[in-house]
């Protein structure tokens, strides 16, 4: 199994496509890293401004809510202009958000900077997946899994770095160290991301259009929106969105409150809590690489359910652990949650033809990521009213629902038979 997984992604790194995969992965490592480091520096923010669990949940929900709500405009921008432009604009806004966090000295500015940070990382969200899916049509899930795994690697390292830096220089420096790294990666993106995506045919759940997925500025925004609305009613799009909504509720809530849970419920030391939080993402890296290869060889939709099923006993062990080693086992299994993302993203990106891929995928990401941002808010409210333990137990129920819904997802191969709605519109006598 290990040799199969390694062999499945090792061949991706070669030529210009390999360089593109590396820089896109570095971009994802930093942008998701910024959102994950944010909860890691929350204790420092709490010390400065003094607020409770509910406010923590609102701030974490804000960064993810802004990230989710901007996905649709980001995807529309990519379809009407280019994925390259969407990526570069997203990185620019992200750097503005990080700068504002460094310079802000009031709670109002903290809130605004949090929203800007989430917005910047969201603009480039749809394009990241679509660029990789087009660059690696025969290994879409594996390519996405490499990018996701890079994010998991950053998430396992950045919180530790943030904790050390925060202890010496304060919480602003604990997240601000990402800013110069973003500048370097943005230069690489400018040089390596093509102005137009390769015109090779990309498998699509609704028709497999051979039209390039970039440079579609000749089509009107109204045509794009109408075509996307038609495609969004498909069974694969609807059930896939519900599936990823459940995954995102669990992911945002777990990553937003896991360090706090370790400190306040599991009663481990701050250093041990930081290591366990990093371990969640370190083992998540392996889960994501494995999920990418499994998804390409089996079916992406079913693969999401498989890894959600792995995470459920992990969370239950975390909730019942009375020793550090059991807590460690629970964290390792819980990281199966991260394995849901490569196959889930591939499945949803493939639910649309290339001509409206950015807009359709962006709308879906806005729904499930924006909806998922309610998870930390709900868990925070439950923690204040009852206990954080009960909040985490509710997430186990959510993941159980995810497993059930994935059983209803049409296999990806069965859904790749539809018509490109933009082509249907162009051929209509009414037009």
Report on this model:
InterPro entries: MFS (IPR011701), MFS_dom (IPR020846), MFS_trans_sf (IPR036259). This is Sugar phosphate permease. Pfam families: MFS_1 (PF07690). The protein is an all-alpha fold and about 425 residues long. The protein has a single domain, classed as Growth Hormone, Chain: A, CATH 1.20.1250.20. Helices cover about 80% and strands about 0% of the residues. The chain has 22 helices and no strands. It has helices at about 1-10, 15-40, 40-50, 55-70, 70-80, 85-105, 105-125, 125-135, 140-170, 170-175, 180-190, 220-230, 235-265, 270-295, 300-320, 325-335, 340-350, 355-370, 375-385, 390-405, 410-415, 420-425. Helix 6 runs antiparallel to helix 11 and helix 15 (about 300-320) runs antiparallel to helix 20 (about 390-405). The longest helix has 30 residues, at about 140-170. The protein is globular, with a radius of gyration of 20 Å. The protein starts with a helix and ends with a helix. Mean pLDDT is about 80; it is low at about 200-215 and about 415-430.
């Amino acid at each position: 199994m290990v040799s199969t997984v390694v062999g499945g992604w090792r061949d991706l790194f070669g030529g210009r496509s390999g360089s593109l995969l590396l820089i896109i992965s570095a971009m994802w490592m930093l942008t998701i890293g910024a959102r994950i480091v944010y909860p890691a520096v929350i204790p420092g923010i709490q010390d400065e401004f003094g607020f409770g669990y509910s406010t923590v949940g609102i701030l974490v929900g804000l960064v993810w809510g802004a990230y989710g709500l901007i996905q649709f405009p980001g995807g529309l921008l990519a379809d009407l202009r280019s994925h390259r432009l969407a990526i570069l604009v997203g990185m620019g806004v992200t750097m503005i958000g990080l700068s504002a966090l460094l310079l802000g000295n009031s709670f109002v500015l903290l809130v605004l900077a949090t929203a800007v940070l989430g917005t910047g990382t969201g603009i480039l969200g749809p394009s990241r997946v679509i660029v990789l899916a087009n660059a690696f049509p025969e290994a879409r899930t594996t390519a996405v899994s490499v990018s996701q795994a890079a994010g998991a690697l950053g998430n396992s390292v950045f919180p530790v770095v943030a904790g050390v830096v925060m202890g010496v220089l304060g919480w602003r420096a604990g997240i601000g160290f990402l800013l110069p790294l973003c500048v370097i990666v943005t230069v690489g993106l400018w040089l390596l991301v093509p102005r137009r995506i390769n015109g090779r045919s990309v498998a699509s759940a609704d028709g497999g259009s051979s039209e390039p997925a970039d440079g579609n500025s000749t089509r009107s925004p109204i045509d794009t929106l109408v075509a996307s609305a038609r495609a969004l009613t498909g069974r694969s799009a609807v059930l896939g969105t519900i599936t990823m909504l459940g995954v995102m509720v669990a992911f945002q809530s777990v990553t937003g409150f896991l360090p706090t849970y370790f400190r306040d419920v599991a009663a481990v030391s701050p250093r041990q809590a930081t290591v366990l939080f990093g371990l969640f993402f370190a083992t998540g890296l392996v889960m994501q690489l494995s999920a990418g290869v499994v998804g390409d060889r089996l079916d992406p939709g079913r693969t999401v359910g498989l890894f959600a099923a792995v995470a459920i006993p992990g969370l239950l062990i975390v909730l019942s652990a009375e020793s550090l080693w059991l807590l460690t086992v629970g964290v390792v299994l819980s990281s199966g949650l991260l394995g849901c993302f490569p196959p889930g993203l591939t499945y949803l990106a493939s639910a649309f033809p290339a001509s409206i891929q950015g807009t359709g995928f962006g709308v879906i990401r806005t729904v499930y990521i924006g909806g998922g941002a309610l998870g930390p808010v709900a868990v925070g409210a439950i923690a204040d009213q009852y206990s954080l333990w009960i909040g985490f137990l509710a997430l186990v129920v959510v993941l159980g629902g995810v497993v059930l819904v994935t059983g209803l997802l049409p296999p990806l191969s069965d859904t790749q038979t539809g018509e490109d709605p933009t082509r249907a519109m162009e051929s209509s006598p009414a037009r």
